[in-house]
Design brief:
alpha+beta, 60s Ribosomal Protein L30, Chain: A, Phosphoribosyl-aminoimidazole Synthetase, Chain A, domain 2, 33% helix, 23% strand
Length: 338
């Protein structure tokens, strides 16, 4: 086995998540896949069509804590819920419907059976409550480990064709379905110094947005049916993900601050408690798993989407994201290795 680090070689922490992907993806062959790495999900050609596929992992003390600094206990039920929610969100972002999943759960031997059953109950509840009626659990794996880790792979179908990140065109209206900033505010609360036992119901609801996200599952297929040019889910923050979409489509994006104020207003309970500008959560908070979609002029945008900006041509060689004319750094936001 070679050493984990070679002298003078950058570490994965040095270059971050996107840098790692830029280095390793050219080494991997997508062969005859309908769509290789780069979007929210890949696509595999099968007889009669394609299957879209996505995988994600959540790890104890990296993606969740069993007990947060605020004292809030992260229930096994919520961990099971989130393991489904964040993965079906990727299928949703392709304009698809989730149809099957396999789940790998690794955990220490001392974890109670009651915890494992509660985890499974959270999975079942997410499938039912989020509207993933066609999603079947096909199997998975159990393993022993030093920490709790969950890897979920979800399969799906795109009745109206898959919607990629690469299709945005100048003149498109940029719209959002679902929440913005709620999970980011929830994370700040969970990591904060204010004891969870003192939280109001409004504050607790924001913490729940981080622990138990609710992606708008029916909105992806509706956007595809309405003719969306491009789409992705908002997992790492509006600005960061808008930048990814802009770069993939070779365009720039202008965000309208006034259109985002309504999302910031909903975060006021946490903002007042933490003395923080809620617009920063709206712009940079991750893990809401809403949708960011680009719709051409002349089509009717589904009513659950809110227009928050527009797609504009490149003014130079690099894609940019602007807020009321001010250029933003779209490298900010969540990064697993940041």
């Amino acid at each position: 086995m070679t050493n984990q680090q070679t002298d003078n070689s950058p570490t994965v922490g040095d270059i971050g998540e996107q840098g790692i992907l830029n280095e390793i993806l050219p080494l991997l062959d997508a062969k005859d896949a309908g769509l290789g790495p780069g979007d929210d999900a890949g696509a595999l050609r099968v007889a009669g069509g394609e299957v879209v596929v996505s995988v994600d992992t959540i790890v104890q003390d990296q993606d969740f804590r069993l007990v947060w600094p605020s004292g809030h206990e992260h229930a096994a039920y919520d961990i099971g819920w989130k393991s489904i929610a964040q993965n079906v969100s990727d299928i949703n972002a392709m304009g698809g419907v989730p149809t099957g999943a396999v789940i790998s759960l690794s955990m220490p031997a001392e974890v109670s059976l009651a915890w494992a059953k509660e985890f499974a109950s959270g999975i079942a509840a997410a499938i039912s409550s989020l509207g993933a009626a066609r999603l079947a659990i096909l199997g998975g794996d159990l393993s022993r480990s030093s920490e709790i880790s969950v890897t979920t792979t979800v399969l799906g179908e795109c009745e109206y064709g898959k919607i990629l990140r690469t299709g945005a065109k100048p003149g498109d209206r940029l719209a959002v379905a679902g929440r913005l900033g709620a999970a980011g505010a929830g994370l700040a609360l969970l990591e904060g110094k204010h004891e969870a036992t003192t939280w109001s119901r409004a504050v607790l609801r924001l913490a729940d947005a981080q622990c138990k996200p609710t992606p708008p599952l029916e909105s992806g297929p509706r956007a595809a049916q309405s003719g969306a040019h491009a789409m992705m889910d908002i997992s790492d923050g509006l600005v960061r993900d808008a930048g990814r979409l802009a770069k993939a489509s070779r365009v720039s994006i202008k965000l309208d601050k006034s259109a985002l104020e309504v999302f910031a207003h909903r975060l006021e309970p946490a903002a007042k408690l933490l003395d923080f500008d809620p617009m920063q959560w709206v712009l940079h908070g991750g893990e809401d798993f809403g949708l960011l979609a680009c719709f051409p002029t002349g089509v009717e945008i589904p009513e659950e989407f809110s227009v928050v900006g527009e797609v504009v041509p490149l003014t130079g060689r690099r894609s940019n994201v602007f807020l009321n004319g001010k250029q933003l750094d779209y490298r900010s936001g969540f990064d697993h290795f940041g």
